[in-house]
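Memo to structure team: turn this sequence into structure tokens by end of day. - J.P.
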Amino acid sequence: MRFSLLPIIVLLMPILEIAGFIVVGKAIGLWPTLALIILTSMLGLIILRNGGLGMVRNLQNAGRTGDQPAEALVSGGMRVIAGILLFVPGFFTDIIGVLLLVPAVRRFFWTIFRPNIIVADFARGGFRNAPRGSTSSKVVDLDEDDFHREGPNNSPWSPDRNDRNLPRE
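Reply from structure team:
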């Protein structure tokens, strides 16, 4: 049911943007409207450039301190989306982009997305933030004696050439 709204939004967005251009153009004039569009597009490019670098920095800091990198990744991703929305000409996309730059709005979206994000932490032997309903959050590590294959080993990476399904010379 949620996919039925997507075509309506895609069709209505250009109409809303054109209406926004007309309303703002009547209020402040043609040249200030064009200057505002160019200014927000340049701001979007700056945010895209700095947002990607900032996201990498936040992920490195989260890895160093042992915090969950998922929050830094989602927050950085929202900043990148904000930069893209600011770069796209239009006032409604600019409003959404500016809202995504506000830390309180990003925290609100993080509280919504947090239950659906799983962070794999193999160094500590399990998952943090495991999905609801999971019975085990530990990684099962099997020895060679615990697991064996039935039939021939037909892996192309097998060290024994006779075990591979390759043409014979």
